[in-house]
């Protein structure tokens, strides 16, 4: 039977992909890197534009990394990233995380970054990820947690933005506070040997604030998130523009600071 049909809330507007292109193996999968070894076969689930995927390929030496995503359009960019960095041990393909076309035990490591929060059945996805991981291998998952985000200066309209984001995510059956739930989901998927951890991104320099603030201001005006918020009747165009202004106001604050927490789980298959 086919798996659930999920909606990727963020979509692939450039304001989203600029954020994804910033991600590297080092700043987004540091908890996993010490567990990688030369020759490993690694599956990167929900690879997006491939910057993390290609980075991981550098850690497995003569091994191989397979990046998968539900959207062919973003894999075009991922393949270009691999070519640009001259990584020949990485390939990309379209796959459904609920029904992977790989045999049991095909990989030593299965990795998913910021994927589970967008799924209506994250436990089923973890079960499938476990299936394609060899016994004794590693399934690794890292997800952000919107409820745990905090910032300075305080701004009532940024509080409103977070509340809106969480409501819109719930409207498409996602879980915006996924980070704190990763350990529970891993246990529900049948894993018994799990190392849980946390790490964060922090945006505090003028350049970081400008980049992060502009990304969210654009998402509120142009991305799939904006369309979903309006379509679900959760915000008007005027609401979104007002919240976009709040993001730019935060970005211009000399003492602006923003923290994004993530929950992580290394699970032995």
Question: What does the model show?
Answer:
With 269 residues, the chain is an alpha/beta fold. Strands 1, 2, 3, 4, 5, 6, 7 and 8 form an 8-stranded mixed sheet that branches. Helix content is 39%, strand content 22%. The chain has helices at 14-22, 25-28, 51-57, 72-84, 122-131, 156-171, 182-188, 206-222, 224-231, 237-251; strands spanning 41-45, 64-69, 90-94, 107-113, 133-144, 150-152, 194-203, 257-268. The longest helix has 17 residues, at 206-222. Helix 6 (156-171) crosses helix 10 (237-251) and helix 8 crosses helix 9 (224-231). The chain is built from 10 helices and 8 strands. Helix 4 links the parallel strand 2 (64-69) and strand 3 (90-94).
What is the topology?
Layout lengths: L13 H9 L2 H4 L12 E5 L5 H7 L6 E6 L2 H13 L5 E5 L12 E7 L8 H10 L1 E12 L5 E3 L3 H16 L10 H7 L5 E10 L2 H17 L1 H8 L5 H15 L5 E12 L1
Parallel strand pairs: 1-2, 1-4, 2-3, 4-5
Antiparallel strand pairs: 5-8, 6-8, 7-8
Helix pairs in contact: 1-8, 6-10, 8-9, 8-10
Global outline: globular
* Beta-strand residue percentage: 15-25%
Cα radius of gyration in angstroms = 18 Å
Please report the number of helical segments: 10
Largest sheet: 8 strands, mixed
Q: Could you give the order of the helices and strands?
A: HHEHEHEEHEEHHEHHHE
Distance between the termini: 24 Å
Mean pLDDT: 96
Class by alpha and beta content: alpha/beta
Return residue spans where pLDDT drops below 50 for at least 5 consecutive residues: none
């Amino acid at each position: 039977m086919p798996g659930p049909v999920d909606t990727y809330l963020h979509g692939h507007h450039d304001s989203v992909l600029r954020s994804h292109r910033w991600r590297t193996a080092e700043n987004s999968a540091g908890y996993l890197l010490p567990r990688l070894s030369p020759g490993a076969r690694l599956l990167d689930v929900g690879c997006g534009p491939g910057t993390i995927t290609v980075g991981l390929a550098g850690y497995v030496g003569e091994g191989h990394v397979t990046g998968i995503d539900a959207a062919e359009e973003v894999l075009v960019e991922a393949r270009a990233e691999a070519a640009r960095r001259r990584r020949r041990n990485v390939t990309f393909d379209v796959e459904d995380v609920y029904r992977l076309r790989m045999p049991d035990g095909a990989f030593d490591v299965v990795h998913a970054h910021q994927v589970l929060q967008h799924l209506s059945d994250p436990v089923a996805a973890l079960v499938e990820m476990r299936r394609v991981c060899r016994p004794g291998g590693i399934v690794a998952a890292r997800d952000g947690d919107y409820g745990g985000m905090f910032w300075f200066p305080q701004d009532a309209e940024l509080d409103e933005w977070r509340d809106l984001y969480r409501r819109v995510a719930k409207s498409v059956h996602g879980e915006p506070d996924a980070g704190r739930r990763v350990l529970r989901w891993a246990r529900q998927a049948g894993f018994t040997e799990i190392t849980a951890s946390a790490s964060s991104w922090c945006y505090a320099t003028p350049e970081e604030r400008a980049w992060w603030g502009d990304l969210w201001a654009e998402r509120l005006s142009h991305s799939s998130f904006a369309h979903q918020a309006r379509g679900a009747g959760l915000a008007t165009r005027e609401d979104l523009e007002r919240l976009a202004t709040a993001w730019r106001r935060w970005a211009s604050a000399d003492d602006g600071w923003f923290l994004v927490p993530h929950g992580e789980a290394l699970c032995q298959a």
